[in-house]
Design brief:
The complex is a heterodimer of chains A (180) and B (353). Chain A is an alpha+beta fold and 180 residues long. Chain A is 29% helix and 30% strand. Chain A has helices spanning 6-20, 24-28, 49-55, 86-89, 101-108, 150-154, 171-174, 176-179; strands at residues 2-3, 35-40, 43-48, 68-73, 79-81, 96-99, 113-114, 118-121, 130-135, 140-146, 161-168. Chain B has 353 residues and is mainly alpha-helical. In chain B, 43% of the residues lie in helices and 6% in strands. Chain B has 9 helices and 6 strands, in the order αββααββαββααααα. Chain B has helices at residues 2-17, 46-50, 52-76, 111-119, 146-153, 169-195, 214-225, 267-282, 290-322, and strands spanning 30-32, 37-39, 79-82, 85-88, 129-132, 137-140. The longest helix of chain B is centred in the last third of the chain and has 33 residues, at 290-322. The chains are: A alpha+beta (180), B mainly alpha (353). Chain A binds chain B through residues 3, 5-6, 9-10, 13-14, 17, 21-22, 24-25, 28-29, 34, 36-37, 49, 76-77, 126-127, 149, 151-152, and chain B through 245-246, 262, 264-265, 267-268, 270-271, 274-275, 277-278, 281-282, 289, 291-292, 295, 298-299, 302. Chain A: It is found in: Nucleus, Nucleolus. Chain A: This is 60S ribosome subunit biogenesis protein NIP7 homolog. Chain A: InterPro entries: NIP7_N, Nip7_N_euk, PUA, PUA-like_sf, PUA_sf, Ribosomal_synth_fac_NIP7, UPF0113_PUA.
Chain lengths: 180, 353
């Protein structure tokens, strides 16, 4: 478990601010204990200080993961969020998209959200904004990036892409072996 | 007789000085004359070993006796006399001694040897000579008289159709050969460097050929730019110059990417650092997003228009109910059969102009 370097921390926070904006502070500044980000084999884990100290007693070779995996750094040093981060992103996300029950399955199979499947969208969502995608019953099922702003959505044709798929909970099954 | 006695006494005194050459032992010693080794398997006298006063003398006598036995054994061997010195030829040693130096390590494999091993390619030895049908004789494949045979065989080379007819094919061939030799030499040096685990730069000399590709040129440019005392830190940039990917020039310099491990910060310090970093990221001056501005403007316009429509609608209705003098702004010519007839009017029918 390594401490993230300055540039990697920056990349991580920049990515997180795309989805949850100023709420990133809440991930660090928690009343219930200190939480931090640690890196292991290019994967970033969000872990409480208490748990980290327990994890440090394990020999590094034997430790596979500790805490919650937020994502990984690619070989070109870009940060990619994983679906496992959804539990921390979903409650803080200011911009959301709700998909109709008929389009849920399509999204969970890794497809983009199209206009016909769009149930609701947060007012004033800009273009290329990280959004959390919910079902109509407010259960988060993934996240993505908007392809159109809210105003543009109104005039889009039914097959136009509204949000690009980035991660969905179907990945827990589809890419079980590569997630952690 | 006095003289004889005197001499005898003297001899006796002399003999008292020296100990006898015969030594008695319970068990015979084991000898390995080849290494001048005698090993005594007899028990030691523990009593004299433990007492401080006797220990040294005991060990001394023991050593002398054993040495005497060893020398006796040597004297049993056939002696020679070379230049007034008595010499003995020792037999072959029987004891196996451990080697003084470690077993030499196997030679590291070259890159090709490694590859061949992984692929299971075995070397099959070629003959030194080969029968040449054209020359009707045995021709060496390498080494002595190979070049002569080659010259004899290829006294003429055809210039291919697609090449410039003025090309000297012999010169071209020699050039290719010398390049091959140079490449082989470079690979040999690389193999040595690899075996000794020496870091060598990924790029060597700057490209001189005019046919360098884009990647080679860009690396050359990066290297050239970083070839200042400050590693190119204060060098001017071109307006659209690409940054070197990854670590830039540092990955081309061997031993440059050794990093010192940063100390692990305390939880409080780490938290503070993270919060500061987040503040920095959040307080970045927003760029003017033209697209966003335009879409916002469009959105406002749309809202305005829709509100206008809402307020306009009732007006239109009033006009219709009133009938008559609504101003028609259309520039088209009025058509027949469109308007409603009003029989109360003076002149019924379409207005004619």
């Amino acid at each position: 478990m390594k401490v993230l370097s300055e540039e990697r921390t920056r990349a991580l926070f920049e990515k997180l601010t795309k989805y949850i904006g100023v709420n990133v502070k809440l991930l660090i500044d928690r009343p219930d204990g200190t939480y931090c980000f640690r890196e292991k084999k290019d994967r970033v884990y969000y872990i409480s200080e208490r748990l980290l100290q327990l994890a440090q007693t394990v020999k590094p070779d034997h430790l596979i993961s500790a805490g919650t995996c937020f994502g990984k750094f690619t070989k070109t040093n870009k940060f990619r969020l994983h679906i496992t981060a959804l539990t921390y992103i979903a409650p803080y996300a200011p911009y959301k998209i709700w998909v109709k029950p008929s389009a849920e399955q399509q999204f969970l199979y890794g497809n983009h959200v199209i206009k016909s499947g769009l149930g609701r969208i947060t007012e004033n969502t800009p273009k290329h904004q990280g959004v959390v995608i919910n079902t109509m019953s407010d259960i988060p099922i993934g996240f993505g990036v908007t392809a159109r702003s809210t105003t543009e959505c109104r005039h889009a044709d039914p097959l136009a892409t509204i949000a690009f798929h980035q991660a969905d909970i179907g990945e827990y099954i589809r890419s079980e072996d590569t997630l952690v | 007789m006095d003289i004889v006695n005197e001499i005898l006494e003297k001899e006796q005194k002399k003999a008292e000085k020296y100990k006898p050459i015969t030594v008695e032992k319970h068990l015979e010693l084991e000898f390995d004359i080849g290494t001048l080794l005698a090993s005594d398997t007899n028990d030691l006298d523990i009593k004299s070993l433990k007492s401080d006063s006797q220990r040294d003398s005991y060990l001394n006598t023991l050593a002398r006796d054993n040495t005497q036995l060893l020398l006796n054994k040597i004297w049993e061997l056939p002696t020679e006399r070379i230049d007034e010195a008595i010499v003995v030829k020792l037999p072959q040693p029987k004891t196996v001694l451990p080697r003084s130096k470690p077993v030499p390590k196997p030679k590291p494999l070259t890159k090709w040897q490694e590859f061949a091993k992984a692929k299971g390619i075995t070397k099959n030895k070629k003959d030194k000579v080969k029968w040449d049908e054209q020359l009707q004789k045995w021709v060496p494949l390498y080494g002595f008289r190979k070049a002569v045979a080659e010259k004899e065989k290829q006294w003429l080379i055809e210039v291919p159709q697609h090449l410039d007819p003025m090309v000297d094919m012999f010169e071209k061939k020699a050039m290719e050969k010398s390049e091959k030799v140079a490449k082989n030499e470079l690979q040999r040096l690389k193999n040595i460097a690899r075996a000794k685990k020496v870091n060598i730069p990924r790029v060597g000399l700057p490209v001189t050929s005019d046919k360098a590709n884009a990647a080679q040129l860009s690396t050359a440019a990066i290297v050239a730019k970083a070839s200042t005392a400050s590693l190119g830190k204060f060098q001017d940039k071109l307006p659209k110059e690409k940054e070197a990917r990854g670590k830039g020039v540092h990955e081309l310099i061997p031993g440059k990417d050794r990093k010192r491990k940063a100390p692990i910060p305390t939880p409080q310090a780490e938290k503070q650092n993270n919060l500061n970093l987040i503040d920095k990221i959040l307080n970045k001056r927003p760029k003017i997003d033209m697209e966003k501005a335009v879409s916002k403007h469009i959105h406002e316009e749309q809202i305005q228009r829709s509100e206008e429509k809402k307020t306009m609608k009732p007006l239109k209705g009033k006009r219709k109910t009133k009938g008559g003098n609504a101003t028609n702004f259309s520039a088209k010519k009025p058509k027949a059969g469109k308007g409603q007839r009003n029989p109360n009017k003076k002149n019924p029918g379409r207005k004619r102009r």
